[in-house]
From TrEMBL:
Matching SMART domains: FIST, FIST_C
Domain FIST C-domain: 225-376
Protein name, UniProt field: FIST domain-containing protein
Pfam family, one: FIST_C
Domain FIST: 32-228
Lineage: Bacteria, Bacillati, Bacillota, Negativicutes, Selenomonadales
Stored InterPro entries: FIST_C, FIST_domain_N
């Protein structure tokens, strides 16, 4: 597999923008099968963009909106359009998009889309699923990953929730000329590919907030020990009457540790989404199981840089161990909360970290998300688990 990531700032004039992307790709030779992955500012007209791209390129193009994006050519970009083209003779790509996802249909619709794409691969065995979705406040983030994990039998899932400028109503996914504000787009990749996936976070825990979840359901935590979630937060000194509660916890997520029924030790970061002052419950962006150990965490620019280096260096080690396979491409998903640790003047610092450690032969693109999808490996057993994350840097190499 080979790839090339190109970029244009022309998101307002899509004729000029697509022409620029085409010009930058003109020397890139396509193989038998190809795929385009787009990340673009949320105000982009994705239907028009997809239509114009399909007029120029005869392969499926999928993608999503992003608060900010980055690519090998541009580095960090607040606005613009990134197009990453993957091509191969010995790999197949099957891309599709669900219908509108609701509380009632999301399981059946995600499974239906996966099964259709599995058939569309035409004999290739799927090796990885890359997917982006619009966050639904009524569906825990884990569910998007869990349904795909169940339907696929544990095929690695990578991607995340698309983002906008914290408006939450302008998020979109796209497939060719179709745009959806409530769906999920995905591609199954099969053939001669050995994807390497890494997810890393780096935080410091706060000693005076160290609790055990005694009552929870899905992503709703009712009690920590004998206290309600609200009482625990108030005891820790948080002002829960602020207008924008979510922003107060952007830099203060929670480290959640638990053991699966199979004995696998899992650690994930969870961001608080809302609270219910009447019931005392806290609603998180992802599931927090009963019995989990939960600690308040803090992270800084230094922590962000450390997790970037750790994930990429770990991936490079795995890549080096595959002596007979040549890796050429990467996609990055990083949480918007990580971006918020930087000021406007130094938001490029995290992407500088990518450029410093990603090998020069690896073409990459990526986006900042409202939640990340990436497998993690249990430290106890080595088993791989597809997981939903917050405040995490995720990296796939193909």
């Amino acid at each position: 597999m080979r790839s090339l990531a190109v970029f244009t700032k022309n998101m307002d004039d899509l004729d000029l923008g697509v022409a620029e992307l085409k010009e930058k790709l003109k020397a890139f030779k396509l193989g038998r099968n190809s795929l385009g992955v787009v990340f673009a500012h949320a105000e982009t007209d994705f239907e028009e963009l997809g239509e114009k791209l399909r007029e120029e390129f005869n392969f499926p193009i999928m993608g999503c909106s992003a608060m900010s994006l980055f690519s090998e050519q541009q580095g960090y970009a607040k606005e613009g359009i990134s197009l990453h083209v993957f091509t191969a003779d010995d790999c197949g790509f099957a891309a599709g998009m669900t219908a509108e996802l609701t509380e009632d249909n999301y399981k059946a619709e995600i499974k239906r889309t996966f099964n259709k794409l599995k058939n569309d691969l035409g004999g290739w065995r799927p090796k990885v699923i890359i997917t982006y979705a619009v966050k639904n406040p009524k569906i825990p983030g884990d569910e998007f990953v869990n349904v795909l994990d169940d339907a696929s039998g544990g095929i690695p899932v990578f991607g995340g929730f698309c983002s906008d400028n914290f408006v939450f109503s302008e998020c979109s996914v796209m497939l060719n000329s179709q745009q959806s504000r409530s769906g999920m787009v995905m591609v199954l990749i099969g053939g001669d590919t050995k994807p390497v996936l890494k997810g890393e976070f780096s935080v410091e825990t706060v000693a005076d907030f160290d609790e055990t979840v005694t009552e929870a359901r899905g992503n709703v935590v009712y009690k920590l020990g004998s206290k309600t979630m609200v009482e625990a937060l108030q005891a820790a000194g948080f002002d829960l009457d602020v207008k924008n509660l979510v922003m107060q916890f952007v830099g203060s997520p929670f480290l959640v540790s638990y053991t699966t029924p199979e004995g696998d030790e899992i650690q994930v970061i969870r961001n608080l989404d809302s609270i219910d002052m009447e019931t005392g419950a806290g609603v998180f962006l992802g599931n927090v199981p009963k019995g989990a150990h939960i600690q308040l965490a803090m992270f800084s620019r230094k922590d962000v840089a450390h997790s970037v280096a750790k994930a990429i260096q770990s991936a490079i080690v795995d890549v080096a161990n595959e002596h007979k396979y040549e890796y050429t491409s990467a996609i990055i998903t990083s949480c918007v909360s990580r971006l918020m640790t930087f000021t406007n003047d130094d938001m490029v610092d995290e992407t500088k970290g990518y450029s410093a450690v990603v090998p020069r032969n690896i073409r990459f693109s990526g986006m900042y998300s409202y939640g990340e999808f990436c497998p993690i490996i249990s430290k106890a057993t080595g088993n791989v688990h597809n997981c939903f994350h917050n405040t995490t840097f995720c990296f796939i190499v193909l």
